[in-house]
Amino acid sequence: MLCIEGNNLTGTTEEKLTQRLKDSLNRFEIPKEIRYIDNFIQTETGKINKPKTLEHITST
């Protein structure tokens, strides 16, 4: 899964991104889906809190 912070990409832009990923990544590295989130959840030190962000994404 690829998580993007911010607004949803337009269909054309998302297709271009997907194609660029396919061109540059191994087939096992290509994300199966793209999800959008308003803001990544951060730790007190400003790093992305991956477990809490993933929990938030999967609960919506």
Question: Describe it for me?
Answer:
The protein is of the alpha+beta class and 60 residues long. The protein has a single domain (2-59), classed as ANL, C-terminal domain (GMP Synthetase, Chain A, domain 3). It contains two helices and two strands, in the order βαβα. It has helices spanning 11-24, 50-59; strands spanning 2-5, 34-37. The chain has a two-stranded parallel sheet.
Topology summary:
Blueprint: E1 2-5, H1 11-24, E2 34-37, H2 50-59
Parallel strand pairs: 1-2
Main features:
60 residues, alpha+beta, GMP Synthetase, Chain A, domain 3, 2 strands, 40% helix, globular
Name the poorly predicted regions.
none
- Number of structural domains: 1
Element string (H = helix, E = strand): EHEH
Q: Total strand count, please?
A: 2
Task: Provide the residue-averaged pLDDT.
Answer: 93
Q: First CA to last CA: what distance?
A: 14 Å
CATH A-level architecture: 2-Layer Sandwich
What percentage of residues falls in helices of 4 or more residues? 40-55%
Please state the overall shape, judged from the principal axes of the Cα atoms.
globular
- Coarse structural class: alpha+beta
Output the number of helix runs.
Answer: 2
CATH topology: GMP Synthetase, Chain A, domain 3
Largest sheet: 2 strands, parallel
Report the sheet-strand fraction. 5-15%
In CATH, what is the homologous superfamily?
Answer: ANL, C-terminal domain
* Rounded radius of gyration (Å): 13 Å
Strand order of the largest sheet: 1-2
